[in-house]
Amino acid sequence: MSKLALLSAVAVAQDVMDGNMKPNDPKVIEMLNSQGANWVAGVNPALEGLTFNDVRGLLGTALSHISEHENNTLASYGAVSLPAEFDARSHWQGLLHPIRNQAQCGSCWAFSASEVLSDRFAIATGASSPVLSAEDLVSCDKGDMGCNGGMLNTAWDYMTRSGIVTDDCYPYDAGSGHASTCATSCKNGDRFTKYFAKNSYALKGVSNVQADLVANGPVQTAFNVYKSFMSYKSGVYTKHFWEFLPEGGHAVKIVGYGTEAGQDYWLIANSWGPSWGLSGYFKIKRGGDECGIETRGPPYAGLPKINSVVV
């Protein structure tokens, strides 16, 4: 492609993906699917009626590089034998918690953190466990900013220091974009039982993320989101070469990895409801730090403290 043709293609793409357009717009989907990528764009009912600018409000994670967390990075797992493919949903069948929907609040950091801890409680005990409260983090974690965003490490600090209650006790009500006053008693009348993380740590390197996932369960991470991601429907996502400026940082839950059509990928749970992407999940290129997925969260996790405390 000549330089002139390249510049023309970039201009068309930028025009089609103007912030006031919608991820579900047929023109956007057609343009994205004409790029010859290893993934397919499509209509996502979860984002019906929303513009790119609207979806930007869901991207509530302040990213930080793994190099900023050297003092809290888990030691390398070393040369461990890893399966070629892994899916925590089938490996621990019935123990992972369902896809959730953060709605119109930049609370992805709270959803992914609480979901990882929920899953790891179930895995550690070998029995189903309650969904833990994202609202507890959104409304009560003063180290973060509720619907206006948060960070992975501070969310885990809160879950280690203060713990979080169940979603039945403190259900999510920040979907309109406004967090409620921090609750000190259960809305359903149950005892105010806190579930704690025993510790927390960053994970450096693809193999260490894989090893911790296989050993202990899903891992939280975050990455730069570009407009094309909002229209993702299937395949292994990579951003397009003409996408230079990210829309924001987004936190998610890694549940597996594998290879599709020769492309290594991470399998990841989103928090935009089950009608987005692959029934709420997506695949993104593994290796090469696509969109910062392997360094910019950075990947974070922790082990559950099995003995809960009643406040």
Name the features.
311 residues; alpha+beta; Cathepsin B, Chain A; seven-stranded mixed sheet; two-stranded antiparallel sheet; 8 helices; 11 strands; 25% helix; 19% strand; globular
Assembly state of the chains shown: single chain
Strand content: 15-25%
State the helical fraction: 10-25%
Output the CATH homologous superfamily.
Cysteine proteinases
According to CATH, what is the topology? Cathepsin B, Chain A
Tally of distinct domains? 1
Question: Which H/E pattern describes the elements?
Answer: HHEHEHHHHEEHEEEEEEE
- Distance from N terminus to C terminus (CA atoms, Å) equals 65 Å
* Stretches with pLDDT under 50, minimum 5 residues: none
Biggest sheet overview: 7 strands, mixed
What is the molecular shape? Answer: globular
Structural class: alpha+beta
Overview of this structure, please?
By secondary structure, the protein is of the alpha+beta class. It has a single domain, classed as Alpha-Beta Complex (Cathepsin B, Chain A). The chain is 25% helix and 19% strand. It has eight helices and eleven strands. Strands 1, 2, 5, 6, 7, 8 and 9 form a seven-stranded mixed β-sheet that branches. α5 crosses α7. It is globular and about 65 Å long. The mean pLDDT is 95.
